[in-house]
Amino acid sequence: MSKSPETSDAGHDEAGITRSAPREVARALRLRIQNGELKPGEWLREVKLAEELGVGRSAIREALRLLQQDGLVELEKFRGARVTAPSLYELFDLFEVRAALFGLVARFACFRAPDADIAEIAARIERLIESVGHTSAEDRVKEGIAIGASMALHANRDARDMMNASHRKARWHFSYLGIAESRGSYGPLEDWRDLASALRHRDAEAAAAHARRIIYFTQGEVTKSLVARGAAPPV
Questions:
Q1: 128/184: higher pLDDT
Q2: Sheet containing 43-44: order of strands
C-alpha cells in the first residue's frame, strides 16, 4: 500500500518540498507582514497560501507554527491563523517587564553563578561586542537573548519561567519591526561592556543597572519605530 502524501518521505512534504520549505515560506510571509501586505487581524488560509506559494499544505502549517513562535500570528483551533500585532502600549509594558527580569537575572548570576560560568558569560558578551561589523545584526540579537538565558540559569525557577516566556515576544519586535536588519547592534555597546565587567567583579547592583539599560535602549528603538509608523507614543 502506498504511503499517504503527508508521510511519504521524512524529508519532504506532500508536494515534494524539502524541510527547508517551511522556513522559506515563513520568511516570505514574515516580509509580507512587515511591509503591511498582510494586516493585523487578517486570516491566513492554508489552501490559498499553498496555491499562491506553490508548496504543500504541510509546509504552510509548519511555516505558520514558526510565525506563531515569533508572535506574528495566532493559531485558533478550527479557524486557522490570524496576523497579530501587539499595541504600542503592550510592547512598551513588555519592555518594562523584560528590563526588570534582565536586571534580576544579572543580579542572580552575580550572587550564584560559579566562577567558570561568570567567565563564560562575560566572554560571550565580549565576543558579541567584537562581532559588530563581522556578523549579521540578526545573529547578534539572538546571541544577546542567549546571554540573557545563560544568566537566567542561575535564577530561581519562577524568574527563569518568566524570562523564557518573554523570549517569544522579544522575537516579535525584532521580526515585525525589522530592527534586527536595520540596527548595528543589540543595545548600547558601552552598557554591554560594563555588564561584562560588573559580572566579573560580581557587582550585582551595577550588573542589574546595565542589564536594564540594554533593554531600555531597545524599548526606545521600538517606540520610535512604531511612532514613525503612525502609532501614538505612550504617556
A1: 128
A2: 43-44, 80-83, 73-76
